[in-house]
Structure formats: structure tokens, C-alpha cells
Fold this sequence. Notes:
Elements: H1 27-30, H2 39-71, H3 75-96, H4 98-116, H5 124-149, H6 151-158, H7 165-175, H8 178-194, H9 199-202, H10 204-223, H11 226-253, H12 278-302, H13 309-320, H14 322-327, H15 329-343, H16 347-374, H17 376-384, H18 391-405, H19 408-422, H20 430-453, H21 455-475, H22 477-480, H23 486-512, H24 517-538, H25 545-558
Helix pairs in contact: 2-10, 2-15, 3-7, 3-8, 3-11, 3-12, 3-13, 4-8, 4-12, 4-15, 5-8, 6-7, 7-11, 8-11, 10-11, 12-20, 12-21, 13-18, 15-16, 15-19, 16-18, 16-19, 16-23, 16-24, 17-18, 17-24, 18-21, 19-21, 20-21, 23-24
Amino acid sequence: MKPTLPAGDDETVRPRAVPAQPTARTTADAGRDAHGSSSTFLARAALLTAVLSAAGSLLGLVRDQTLAHLFGAGSETDAFLVAWTVPEVAATLLIEDGLAFMLVPAFSAAIALRGSRRSPGQDPVRALVAGSLPRLTLAFLASGLALIAGAPQLVEVLAPGLPDPQLAVDCTRLTATCVLTFGLTGYCSAALRAHSSYLAPAAIYVAYNTGIIVTLLVLADRWGVRAAAAGVAVGGCLMVLVQAPVLRRCLTRADPGGPVLRDDGDDAAPPQKQSLNMMLISTVLLFALCRQSQVFIERFLASSLPSGAISHLNYAQKVAQLPMVLSLMLCTVTFPVVAKALARGDIERARDRVERDVALAACIVLSGAAVVFACAPQIIQLLFQRGAFTGADTAATASIMRVYSLGLLGHCLVGALVRSYFSAGRPTWYPVVSMALGMTLTAGVGTLTVGTWGVAGIAAANALGITFTAVLLLTAMDRRSVPVRLPKVLLELGKTLLAAVAATAAGLVGAAQVGQPLGSLAAGCLAVGTVFGLLLWALNVQAFVPAVRFATRKLRHAR
Length: 559
């Protein structure tokens, strides 16, 4: 993307020419974000995204439950999970991180340019689609075909110790089709979110997991675990079908002919025309690859352990990361807001938005981490212990899940902060270097500990490496990204972390009071929620207190 900001990595993100800003904002303007959307709209969009994402995550649990019931945690499941690496990496590169970091700022800038036009001409948004979509589609297709052809070599690199590599090769060739479908899905998601359309992008994982579950149930008797890989191909097609018609309507409704009034009401100079460039693409994709390399590291190290180790890691990670996924929903919604604020030179709005997002995401992920650590055995027993998944599998998975929970705050902060680094739409190598250093630490610690601690050592290395990356990103925000007030952010994170530690201890005590799994889980969750909420209120955590006051006002109004 052709940047409108300085290209130097060591500089704070600032526009080349910041237009004069009014000395005081109007009341109406104060309640609106950088793209002109009201706070109420953002709250509703975040709620809609969270609800549909939670539904997709629940269907993901059903998918994993079905896989565990049919195939347990044995060699067949291990073979499929090696092939599952392809959609996991593709989702990170093409849907969740990589492509979104590149395209959301590009579409945001194109929309801002459309809004600044004073005379008829070519619509910048349509020009961006015409110039980028055909080339990206060809790249996705070529990459998918290359993975299909090189599946045997890929399996050998990812898991050289598998007892049945051919099964993993067959599954990998089926899952490689997702490179094309995930790429188109990510493109549609980025474009729709930049247009403030959140329903279809939030529903993609509902469609995806539904496709996997149905295909698995229909074909499992005949195809075995290959049916799950076929489900990945079916689910990827459904994700595209959910969004493509909505994006087409968005582009059709746009009026490229006449002038469009700006929504910020100032006399700012129109943003420069944006286009994709190879430097930006390289930094974004390298960051996403470095982040996803933790999956390669884990499965490579676990492939030499007894059968089932990869499966235990997978089930533990999928459940443990649910709080992190939910905590980043708000950041997903507000990413275009920050990008448009930076495109217009409004650093103050971008800073305030990022600080609020980080604080609220930390509250959500730490509350979930407390529940995961306190109630891990009960959660795994209720979700998976049936069919071929035994009590020994439950114990092994729960212990790993507790270790994973220690790195959830790091995962959340990396996901939230890196959006700020790329929201200006300019190449920056600092996130790539930080992620590479974190993954190097993960690989080193995992190699040293896997012989002694087994899969628990691999999970601990994951938590340590991602936390180190989060520290690097956070401490450099004021110099290399949106200039947040670092002491304030650290103070709020410290208070939230203290509340989470106390809530975890309360959850352990509460869960131990009941013998039955469901009742024990309920008691643990109640203890965690009560202690965490009370401490957030007592410590005056800024992300929590306004939400309570808002809910109280709404309740009084309803009464």
C-alpha cells in the first residue's frame, strides 16, 4: 500500500500534513468515532460479532467433540491434525490477521478518498477491487495447487515421526483447497468491515464449522478421518457463499459518479490514493507466518512423543483460546475505525480507541483465563469424555490447558496491539521482528523442556514466547505505533491481572466444593465471576466501571 505516513519504523505514527483541528469538539462529534459511526453502533456491531463468533466457536467445540467421539486421541486424529495445520495457517494469514491487516487500511483509505471527491470520477473502492482481487485470486489458486502437489514433503517436515504419514498426506491434499476459499473469504471480510458491514463476516465460522460437522457425520463411516478433511473443503466454500453476495451489493450500491460529502465536517485535505505494494504485503504475511509458526513448533516437537500427544495439545489449545477469541471481537470491529482515524490524521481518537480496546480485551480474556485454569478438568470432562475419549485423555488435556491459560493475556495483547501497528497502512518490520524473537524463544524452551515435561513443556514454551512478544509490542507502542499513554495502560493491565489471580484462587476453592462435574464447573464460574467483578470495581478498573454504570442506568430506565 502506498503510505500516507512516514515510512521510518522508529517514528511515532503521524501524518505528513495534519489538517487544522477544531479546538473543541461538538457534543455530537464527541460521541462518534473516526469513521463517523456512533459509539452505540460500534457497541451493537461488537455485540453482533461476539454473538455470532461465540456461535461459531461453540460449533467448533461440537466439531472437536465429534472428532473426539469418533476417533479419540489416537494416531488417526494425529494424522488429521497435521493436515489441520494448513487451514489453521491459512485462517491466520488470510482471514484473521495477515490479509485483514493489509486490506482493511486499504479499503478504509479508499472509502475516505471516495468521501473527499468533489467531482465525478472513478470510484476508488471499485478501482481497488479491480486492481487487487484478480491477482490475489490467482496467487491463492497457485498456492493451493502447490500445497496439493507437495503434500508428502510438507507432512515429512511438519511431523516426521507419524506412524501413518500417507493418511496425513491424503488429508493435507483435501485441506489445501482452503487456501483459495479462505483467501476469498478474508478479502470479502476486510472489504465488508471497512464498509461497516459486520453480519456476514461474523457468520463465516458458523458456516465453516457447520460444513465440517455435516460432512464428517455423513462420510465418516466410509472415509474415516478423511471425512473431516473433506469437511474443511466444504466449509471453506460455504464461507465464501455467505459473504460474496453481500459484498457485491455493497459495491453495487456505491455511487461512483457524483460527489460525496465528507462525514467529518472539516476542511481536511483528501487522503492520498492508496494501492497495495509488495513491502506491506511482505511485512504482514511474515508477521502472520511467524505467529502461526508456534503450531509448527508444537506439532514438530510432539510428533516424537507417544501417540495422542498432538491430539491432547490440540483439544487443550482450542478450548483455552476461546476467551482470547472473544476478547478480540471488539478490536476486530474497531480496526477500521483506527485505520480511518489515522488516515485523517486524528491521532487522539486513534489513541483513545486503542487504549479502551486493550483494557476491555484484557478484562474479558483474564476472566476467561481464570475460569479455564480453575475448572479445566471439569470443562474437558463435560466437553469430550465420551466414546473413544477416555478419562486418561481428560486428565492429560486438562493439565495442558491450565498451562496454556498462562499465555492467554499475551495472545490477546499481541492480537490487539498488532492491529495498531498495521492500521496506518504502511510497512513496519518491528512486529515481525518481535514475533520472530518470541517464536525463537518458544522453540528453544520447548526443545529443552519436552524431554522432561513432555507436552506440558511445549505448552509452557508457547505461553512464555507469546508473552515475550506482547511485552515487546506494548513497550514500543508510544514510539513505533499509535502513541498510547503507556503508564496508564500498564496500570490498568496490572489491576486487571491482580483481580484475575485472586479470582482464579477463588474458582479453585469453589470448584473443589462440589463433586459432580457440571455443579463443580458452575460453582467455580460463580466464584470467579463474583470475585473478579468485585475486585475490578474496588480497584476502579476503567474498562469495567463505565460498563457497570451504563448497565445500571439502563436498568433504572427500564424500571
